């Protein structure tokens, strides 16, 4: 039986882009089901009753939620380019950094944007990003994964692409190139990969979305 | 070369108990290094520079932080009783639930305790715990892992043991047996396992610690 792979997505979430990137790296063919998050489908609610969120990957009828859990599943099931290292210690190290980015860096950047650059939020986000900056400086490598992108790079897709667009929409400037030159260089290298470009929402579409949200907030 | 395994711990953290439980399940011999968290050792700061927290497992000189990352490492490296299922879908499912407990249930219960039973916090914690209650009711199994404890049970060690002690120390009652009968039954089964008993901090010691914190807060 051929694999049936469906991805429930929304066309603009960095969590969805993480999963798409893993699927494209593995060369997995999938059907994209775009959800209207203001009117979620019965399927989405059935497949992810706990969080009721995208992304959900449904593989031969079996649903999986949570982007990093889905990526580990994809890496387990489909051969080809490995997404996690094979060595147990390197694997643990990649999981540590993916979790650090997901649980600590991304929320710190969201908070800068949500608060329109609140001083304390900026201090905290700077501190977290400086840790990534130092990591890239010490390793001297092109990607967090070394010569090739791995779980950590995929986890960091938000940092590479979203902040600059959100900041343009909101008219703020937090994430500057001179503050984090190594992270900026990494983002350039990452966004230059064809597989990354294939899996990102179009810039104009994201910008229009965040501008609309910004305008709605200003009217409220 | 024999394995050198050191666990940096504090003698009372549920995150440490998770890791000890995984080590005991696998029969791994380790040296316990008890940290004074008000005066952290140079080793702890060197081994976990990002979070500066216990637990840290150091295996043949290589440090690993974050309890769930450490448990996956232990399961990868040492054979014997499996902690995660082998089947990729069951593995993803276990990771999903361990993450739900770690990221959603535990913080909801902490908030009830921190706020001394704030109404909104209680509502939210009830909602999260009801999801676990339903999961145990539907599965009809003894443990989240089935007949034996697995990653999900280990992730939930806090729920089995800590809340009742914290509530005794603070003189509040949130976590009642009649509200969550299946979760309570699971906790009894879990706490009856010898391997779990071996790895928990003594009740009297935890109670004294939380009473002291409660009294310090009341004086402040």
CATH class of the largest domain in chain A: Mainly Alpha
Order of helices and strands of chain A: EHEHEEHHHHHHHH
What is the architecture of the largest domain in chain A at the second tier of CATH? Up-down Bundle
Give me the CATH fold name of the largest domain in chain A: Glutathione S-transferase Yfyf (Class Pi), Chain A, domain 2
Shape of chain A: globular
**How many separate domains make up the residues of chain A?**
2
Let me know the average pLDDT of chain A: 96
Distance between the ends of chain A: 53 Å
Provide a brief overview of the structure:
2 copies of one chain form a homodimer. By secondary structure, the first copy, chain A, is an alpha+beta fold. Chain A has helices spanning 14-26, 42-47, 67-77, 88-114, 119-139, 151-155, 157-170, 181-191, 194-199, 203-219; strands spanning 5-9, 31-34, 56-59, 62-65.
Task: Provide an overview of this structure.
The structure is a homodimer of 220-residue chains. Chain A is an alpha+beta fold and 220 residues long. Chain A folds into two domains: 73 residues, Glutaredoxin (3-Layer(aba) Sandwich), CATH 3.40.30; 132 residues, Glutathione S-transferase Yfyf (Class Pi), Chain A, domain 2 (Up-down Bundle). Helix content of chain A is 60%, strand content 8%. Chain A is built from ten helices and four strands, in the order E-H-E-H-E-E-H-H-H-H-H-H-H-H. In chain A, strands 2-1-3-4 form a four-stranded mixed sheet, covered by helices on one side. In chain A, a hairpin with a 2-residue loop joins strand 3 and strand 4. In chain A, helix 5 crosses helix 8. At the A-B interface, strand 4, helix 3 and helix 4 of A face strand 4, helix 3 and helix 4 of B. Chains A, B: This is glutathione transferase. Chains A, B: It comes from Helianthus annuus (Common sunflower). Chains A, B: InterPro entries: Glutathione-S-Trfase_C-like, Glutathione-S-Trfase_C_sf, Glutathione_S-Trfase, Glutathione_S-Trfase_N, GST_C, GST_C_Tau, Omega/Tau-like, Thioredoxin-like_sf. Chains A, B: One of its GO terms (molecular function) is glutathione transferase activity. Chains A, B: Its EC number is 2.5.1.18.
